[in-house]
TrEMBL record:
Family: Belongs to the AAA ATPase family. BCS1 subfamily.
Name by which UniProt lists this protein: P-loop containing nucleoside triphosphate hydrolase protein
BCS1 N-terminal domain span: 45-223
Cellular compartments annotated: Mitochondrion inner membrane
Domain AAA+ ATPase: 254-413
Keywords attached to this entry: ATP-binding, Hydrolase, Membrane, Mitochondrion, Mitochondrion inner membrane, Nucleotide-binding, Transmembrane, Transmembrane helix
Topology relative to the membrane: Single-pass membrane protein
Source organism of the structure: Rhodofomes roseus
């Protein structure tokens, strides 16, 4: 038992003074070095060991001292937060003074004007703007929230298709709150700027989601569908997101699936994009025919979805090419209904499959169903699937609970043709300008060269004429009159109008001729197909 005697502790019969006398390191070293019996080489070894131990102890102490006054956050370039940081940094006043920088034309999917080096204001919209980012392995010093901050961009690793890098930010601060503040500020700045965009994610070969691009939100008014369809979809998705508690109380999985099927170019993808913008959700595109994707990968991807998002299975019929032939994974064998169906880009009936082939998708129908229903499938997920071939889909895939609403997108009717014409020449929110005198300030649909750079006969109209609404409605009625019911897709009508971006009157005048020409071409194409099938 120990007790205090003054400042000299007592351990049994031994005092701290005794211990110090016995284990005093300096005294001990001195005793060793002056020991006449000990060989010289042994003294040197002991000396070396003592120095090395002291050095390591000092490093440890210094490291923990530094750790206690610096806080560090790292942004990995595979993560979206990396983009936030670069966008934020490019706009930070301290960054304007950086002296060692790397030029980049990456605008981080945000208005490039926000971060561009001044002096590019008069560039054509089609030209990329250049901005700066930190150069590699250079420490950039700046102040943030009153803290001394060091920014370092480093290269982590590279593989055959990309270089992986990260940026670390170290701040001289005893509290970690400053880091939280910085990260949240970068996020807020980016999301505010990005408010008008929809992020689209796709999966990479390692079955992780990667942001592919960010697209401007598409106004819902620009999509013209059969009466009631748009409203049904918008109301249903909005109601769903607001009904989490309703689902929880009834023990129903909180997810909803929509199957949009029908004619190509009828607006299936466009309405999904528009709904994503309306609900402020990101779109995660799942390509079942992706090379190398299998059931496990599919499961991982679905488990990794955020709580609220839109998952898009585009052209799901393509994944089931050859109808609902059900085959096992074993080479070339046909199996009974109920077994797995092999989904792959080159998946044709009676075609043999090499299971060792890592280059094609090996997702099975049961794998897809399990992934959609499984515990990994995220709550709050909205699933959209699109197809041009409804009949090719397995009933199990499209049953309620997996695909709750099935909506048929048909070829255009007269009402849609009229609506498209009006949306084209009098877009909602656009100024009610007069034709050919003023053009709308819309982004040109295609990047073009400046008119002054082209010979006169080559000048391409870069703007779409904007008609006063009454005039547009009148012309639209004439246009719609000439369009036969359910014969042309909205995409083909849009393609026709694109030929007359500046000449709405000509678009109306020539539409009858265009319809006849299109019909004649279809008859011709039909004849060619039937003569080929006879051969
Ligand atoms: N109903 C519509 N209203 C307005 N524009 C439309 C409509 N349908 C198609 N379009 C236009 O046609 C083009 C193609 O449309 P979209 O990709 O949405 O069709 P889709 O039905 O998904 O076609 P696919 O089945 O071939 O993928 C888009 O540029 C879009 O603007």
């Amino acid at each position: 038992m120990s007790h205090f005697v003054g400042t000299n502790h007592t351990f049994g019969n031994t005092t701290t003074q005794d211990l110090l006398d016995r284990y005093n390191p300096v005294g001990w070293i001195f005793t060793v070095m002056t020991n006449a019996i000990m060989p010289e080489w042994l003294k040197l070894v002991i000396m070396g060991a003592v120095i090395e131990i002291s050095r390591r102890a000092f490093d440890m102490l210094w490291g923990s001292l530094v750790d206690s006054i610096w806080v560090t956050v790292t942004f990995d370039d595979e993560d979206w937060a990396y983009t936030w940081f670069h966008y934020w940094l490019a706009r930070h006043p301290s960054w304007r003074k950086a002296r060692s920088v790397e030029a980049t034309t990456n605008s981080y999917d945000i208005n490039p004007e926000d971060i561009a080096i001044p002096g590019q204001e008069d560039d054509l919209p089609s030209m990329r703007k250049v901005s700066y980012k930190p150069s590699r392995y250079t420490s950039h010093r700046m102040w943030y929230g009153g803290c001394y901050t060091v920014v370092t961009r480093s290269h982590i690793a590279s593989n055959y298709y990309r270089v992986k890098e990260s940026v670390s930010i170290s701040m001289l601060s005893l509290s970690r709150n400053i880091l939280d503040e910085l990260v949240l500020e970068t996020k807020k700045a980016y999301l505010q700027a990005e408010g008008k965009l929809v992020n689209v994610y796709g999966s990479n070969p390692t079955n992780c989601w990667r942001r592919l691009n960010s697209m401007p939100k598409r106004p819902i008014e620009s999509i013209i569908l059969d009466a009631g369809v748009k409203e049904l979809l918008i109301n249903d998705t909005r109601n769903f997101l607001a009904s989490k508690e309703w689902y929880r109380r009834r023990g129903i999985p909180f997810r909803r699936g929509y199957l949009l099927h029908g004619a190509p170019g009828s607006g299936k993808s466009s309405i999904i994009h528009s709904i994503a913008g309306d609900l402020g959700l990101d779109v995660y595109v799942l390509t079942l025919s992706r090379t190398g994707l299998d059931d496990t990968g599919l499961n991982e991807l679905l488990s990794d979805l955020p709580e609220r998002c839109i998952t898009l299975l585009e052209d799901v019929d393509v994944a089931f090419k050859g109808g609902m032939a059900r085959r096992s994974l074993s080479k070339g064998s046909l199996v009974k209904a109920g077994d797995d169906v092999l989904i792959g880009e080159d998946d044709k009936p009676n075609q043999s499959h090499n299971t060792d082939d890592k280059t094609e998708s090996r997702v099975t129908l049961s794998g897809l169903l399990n992934a959609l229903d499984g515990i990994g499938a995220q709550e709050g997920r909205i699933l959209f699937a699109t197809t041009n071939d409804y009949a090719a889909l397995d009933p199990a895939l499209i049953r309620p609970g997996r695909m709750d609403l099935h909506i048929n997108f048909k070829l255009a009717n007269k009402e849609q043709a009229k609506g498209l014409f009006e949306a084209f020449y009098s877009p909602p929110g656009g100024p009610d300008d007069t034709l050919d005198e003023k053009y709308s300030d819309d982004e040109p649909p295609f990047p073009t060269l400046a008119a002054r750079d082209l010979p006169e006969q080559q000048i391409i109209p870069t703007r779409i004429a904007t008609l006063p609404r009454a005039q547009s409605a009148d012309l639209a009625a004439h246009f719609a009159e000439a369009i036969p019911e359910r014969e042309f897709s909205m995409a083909s009508l849009q393609g026709y109008l694109m030929l007359y971006k500046l000449q709405p009157h000509d678009a109306v005048e020539n539409v009858v001729g265009w319809v006849e020409k299109e019909r004649a071409e279809r008859v011709q194409a039909g004849k060619q197909v039937s003569s080929l099938s006879l051969i």
